[in-house]
């Protein structure tokens, strides 16, 4: 019952992370591409035409954290990718135990990140902090980071409960 619920929630979290990561990555590529072309025009016209996107570096830098966390969450669907000389020689039970130990560490790391980003979200909300260029509320960014870290923790928990030691490069 508990494992089935964790699996169901983790599947939703993986899907959400994959969609969020894809949207953010697509947006990042578009912003960088447009800015590169705009910079070429800017230089070719001797600074007369400036089509660069305001705050592009800021946008991309904040989205990069979301993309990294979303990618890590979504990538756990098929187990961890490992280059292991020793673990591959273990019996299947030993491989499962090593994998579960690894995912326990991932759960702990993700929960610590969730807590830290949540605390930053509360602190930046209380102070009313905004981003430097675009004046976006910082608590929204930290809130997304906290949500992605929580998604990572849930997916890693599912792997702790269900992992058989299979590796992503073998499936």
Automatic annotation (TrEMBL):
<comment type="function">
    <text>Part of the tripartite ATP-independent periplasmic (TRAP) transport system.</text>
</comment>
<dbReference type="Pfam" id="PF04290">
    <property type="entry name" value="DctQ"/>
</dbReference>
<feature type="transmembrane region" description="Helical">
    <location>
        <begin position="99"/>
        <end position="118"/>
    </location>
</feature>
<dbReference type="GO" id="GO:0022857">
    <property type="term" value="F:transmembrane transporter activity"/>
</dbReference>
<keyword id="KW-1133">Transmembrane helix</keyword>
<dbReference type="GO" id="GO:0005886">
    <property type="term" value="C:plasma membrane"/>
</dbReference>
<feature type="transmembrane region" description="Helical">
    <location>
        <begin position="18"/>
        <end position="42"/>
    </location>
</feature>
<comment type="subunit">
    <text>The complex comprises the extracytoplasmic solute receptor protein and the two transmembrane proteins.</text>
</comment>
<keyword id="KW-0812">Transmembrane</keyword>
<protein>
    <recommendedName>
        <fullName>TRAP transporter small permease protein</fullName>
    </recommendedName>
</protein>
<keyword id="KW-0472">Membrane</keyword>
<feature type="domain" description="Tripartite ATP-independent periplasmic transporters DctQ component">
    <location>
        <begin position="28"/>
        <end position="161"/>
    </location>
</feature>
<dbReference type="InterPro" id="IPR055348">
    <property type="entry name" value="DctQ"/>
</dbReference>
<comment type="similarity">
    <text>Belongs to the TRAP transporter small permease family.</text>
</comment>
<keyword id="KW-1003">Cell membrane</keyword>
<keyword id="KW-0813">Transport</keyword>
<feature type="transmembrane region" description="Helical">
    <location>
        <begin position="62"/>
        <end position="87"/>
    </location>
</feature>
<keyword id="KW-0997">Cell inner membrane</keyword>
<feature type="transmembrane region" description="Helical">
    <location>
        <begin position="138"/>
        <end position="157"/>
    </location>
</feature>
């Amino acid at each position: 019952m508990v494992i089935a619920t964790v699996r169901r929630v983790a599947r939703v979290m993986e899907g959400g992370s994959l969609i969020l990561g894809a949207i953010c990555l697509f947006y990042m590529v578009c912003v960088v591409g447009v800015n590169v072309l705009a910079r070429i025009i800017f230089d070719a016209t001797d600074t007369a035409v400036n089509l660069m996107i305001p705050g592009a570096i800021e946008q991309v830098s904040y989205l990069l954290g979301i993309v990294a966390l979303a990618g890590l969450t979504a990538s756990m669907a098929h187990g961890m990718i490992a280059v292991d000389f020793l673990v591959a020689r273990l019996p299947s039970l030993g491989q499962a135990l090593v994998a579960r130990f690894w995912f326990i560490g991932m759960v702990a790391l993700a929960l610590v990140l969730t807590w830290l980003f949540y605390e930053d979200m509360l602190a930046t909300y209380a102070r009313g902090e905004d981003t430097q260029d675009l004046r976006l509320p910082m608590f929204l960014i930290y809130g997304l980071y906290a949500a992605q870290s929580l998604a990572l923790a849930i997916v890693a928990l599912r792997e702790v409960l269900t992992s058989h030691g299979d590796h992503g490069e073998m499936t």
